[in-house]
Amino acid sequence: MKLETLDDIKNLITSDTETDNIEFKKTTGQLERGMETLCAFLNGEGGTVLFGVTDEGKIIGQDVAGKTKETIGEAISRLEPSVNVQIFYVPMPDSEKKVIALHVESARMERPFCYRGRPYMRIENVTTLMPQDKYNHLLIQRGGKYGWETMTNPDLKISDLDEHAILGAVRGGIRCGRLPEATIREDLPTILEKFNLLHDGKLNNASAVLFGSNFYYYPQCLLRLARFKGTTKDEFIDNQRITGNIYTLLDAAMAFFFKHLSLSGKIEGLYREEELEIPYKALRECCTNALCHRLYHRPGSSVGIAIYDDRVEIENSGTFPPDITMEKLLSGHNSEPQNQIIANVLYKSEVLESWGRGIGLMISECQRVGLPAPEFHTDGNSVWVIFRYTRKTVGYDPTVTRQSPDSHPTVAPQVEKVLSAIGEQTLSTKEIMGIIGLKDKSNFLELYLYPATRLNLVEPIYPENPKHPRQKYRLTDKGKELLKR
Prior knowledge:
By secondary structure, the protein is α+β, with helices and mostly antiparallel strands. It is built from 16 helices and 21 strands.
């Protein structure tokens, strides 16, 4: 920005009142308050503080001595972290007085800023102290060493991670073309380094969230599941608490939906096409976002799923990116993950969409079957999404089947069908689909086969090449044991 003439100042003052990025001060006698506001602008989208302008927007100028410039320089040095502040001394016509302008641009990557050790924020035309929760949120968003997911844990060992989950993520990435096939033949430290989870021999917090098997140090890797009777929280039908890595928790969440939501179906020829009361893809996308984008730095935080007779609510700790409005969130936006390392691994393993299309997918899937669009809410500390449904709103004439409780709390009935179909055999995808009675391959892979492989219940006979033309699947020892039970 260039402010060299009085006309530049007049063009900047568009009204006789202050705004969310313009502040008036009569003289530098109010420098302290002006600097607090400049700090608030830095924590927002930038702005300008003008000295020599009255509260009503009248330009009067002020005397500028050497001491004035020295005092301003000292005040700017008290901003933390250090930042570039543009200083303009604009002369008044026919006068020795000048208008002093202090201008800062947006500095998102360096936020939060403090002045004299205290953070400030701007609400409309008022400067106020920033609440601690917002300060912590901005601090977590700041990149590099300040991000919780990047912090190393010296007590964390590779043996504390789930090797099957790591290799499952690699196979998923190879299958979708986001990882080279040679990745599956590399050792675990090399894979973890490529995922940015291991640096100088030390594992970071993101590695535990993604692939951990021991959560003594990570109680926040928690999923709360509840099915309530009716439309209130007065009475439980089912109540579970599951600790695990993201892949485990995502599978547990989907199994819970299959256990407590009805399947609506229609018959096409010899085959039955099934769909949950709320579309599977919408629920899975919402759970993925909740697990990926939540704030993990609070040990007592978690993801919660509550199923009622008329709605499903999915809640996680955190908030939307501070610079994305609700309108922009719903109309399309660039992806700005809270946890870039976690999001990158989930993207490479084909779990997460990286282009900010998740919300659009949730909305379109609900609209496809005649359900209302999901509702998105935040209070600054948590985000929750509400899916409303009634059986009458499904898009086709349904025959509704209530899911019976499955034999294992984290295994969906669809996974059990895969185990039963394979048994002691080694079968191709087409053969398994034929036994179960399915014709939609993408539906079979997403709802049946991939969850079974992620749970290490089913394994491919060519794990190093998921796209092998003679690929077949068999039960693991874990899968055989579960089938016996």
